[in-house]
Amino acid sequence: MGTKIGIFLRVCLKETRKLLVSFFQDMNYHFIAIGGAVMHNLALELQYTNHTVTGSDDNIFEPAKSRLFNAGLLPDSNGWYPNKITKNIDGVIVGMHAKADNPELLHALALEIPTYSFPEFIYHHSQNKTRLAMAGSHGKTTCTGMLMHILKTLEIEFDFLVGSQLPGFERMVKLSDAPIMVIEADEYLTSPLDSRPKFVHYKAHVAMITGIAWDHVNVFPTEEIYHKQFSLLINTLQLDGSLFWFEGDAALKEIVSASNYPNQESYKEPQYENILKGSLVKVDGHSFSLPFYGKHNLQNASGVVKMAETFGISALESWKALQTFPGTAKRLEQVYSSPNLSIIRDFAHAPSKVEASVLAVREQFSTHHFIAVFEVHTYSSLDSEFMARYNGSLDPADEVIILFDPHVFTQKNMEIPSKETVEMRFGKGMAMSDISTLKSAVIAGIQSHTPTVLLLMSSGNLGGLDPKEFQC
């Protein structure tokens, strides 16, 4: 595609006069649902940039609780207090956790105080910047982290919004006068007052879609509705911008083709081979030793490299920078390694994510005995019919254990399936609801085979399971 956005070529980025955003000067902001992952990071960043910040929530968990306390932003008590909303507040930022009838929100609306979801707020802050959005059902955080690492390595100033704490960055949000903003852009609902997907608000100049795999059936009841969200994303992109998408996804290919978006390009994985603790990538006669593995990660890296090219960073510069990419937490994160045992923690929870992670570990540890543990935790994975979509995703592992907690089903008012039903839906593996039984099974597998690789997958806490219990 070349350098589409000429005014943001890399040379210009280092010389361009700082952008001034009048929207973003010494304001008083109140957060409704300040305890959310992104919300509390946004609150901390606004305080850091000399704004006055207050907030409320009905429950705040770690690490948000400690971080807000240390910054003096932790509410004195849990709950919603309309008296916190006064006319001297310049804006109210509403998290998705809040309800439409939240008393603080209703009072802010009655006082005609501007209210923003955090995507709307991010757009207002970045409307004079070049916005780069990472979208897709999987890999968003890793891809956002890759692009952030490339920019940081090449000393290019940028703002960002990312969905996880990344090594080398103090917060998940940065707001400044930099001319670029990198955004992890998800498809989930914007706020209690806005059922549109978050990513339509960003109106990105450059976007990347990693792939589409239906998930979150409680939000998107049909696959067609889920796919439509990505059509909406493409419709909001700047017409003179760029779109990159993974060519191996048939559904995504159909959506992009139907959009008639003028400047779009697909990507795929580069030539590569697995090496100890990573991958060796070969591009244009050059070899790069990368500290991560997995075909899906290398596919995504190719898309990120193409994104970087739109503002003047060569492919070779990007691949070179990725040689020191530290990765992201719980994304094929190796938490223990010895000659006889490797333990990997992964955030995979949707079928496509589980399949990609299992294949990556099988490929990387081809001679190891492979034990895969997966916790049924999200609303979709608890759904008896949707559960069948996991069938085959764990097949490459030698031993499979599916952990499910009957109490979680009860909490969500869902029918508790039998172990036999869970095993039938997954197609392979032993279903267990008792954590001690699971521990015994894993230990037996580790002791019976050398070397072993243990993959622990969940978006929850694996029933309190501590990987250290298996170290040997």
Q: Between the first and last Cα atoms, what is the distance in angstroms?
A: 51 Å
Radius of gyration: 23 Å
Chain-averaged pLDDT: 90
Percent strand: 15-25%
Helix content: 25-40%
Order of adjacent strands in the largest pleated sheet: 7-6-8-5-11-12-13
Kindly report the name of the CATH homologous superfamily of the largest domain.
Answer: Mur-like, catalytic domain
**Tally of distinct domains:** 3
Structural class of the secondary elements?
alpha/beta
What do you see in this structure?
The chain is α/β, with parallel strands linked by helices. The protein folds into three domains: 28-113, 3-Layer(aba) Sandwich (Rossmann fold), CATH 3.40.50.720; 122-322, 3-Layer(aba) Sandwich (UDP-N-acetylmuramoyl-L-alanine:D-glutamate ligase); 333-470, Protein-Tyrosine Phosphatase, Chain A (Alpha-Beta Complex). It has 15 helices and 22 strands. It has a seven-stranded mixed sheet with strand order 7-6-8-5-11-12-13, with helices on both faces. A hairpin with a 3-residue loop joins strand 17 and strand 18 (341-346). Helix 9 crosses helix 10 (315-322). The chain is globular, with a radius of gyration of 23 Å.
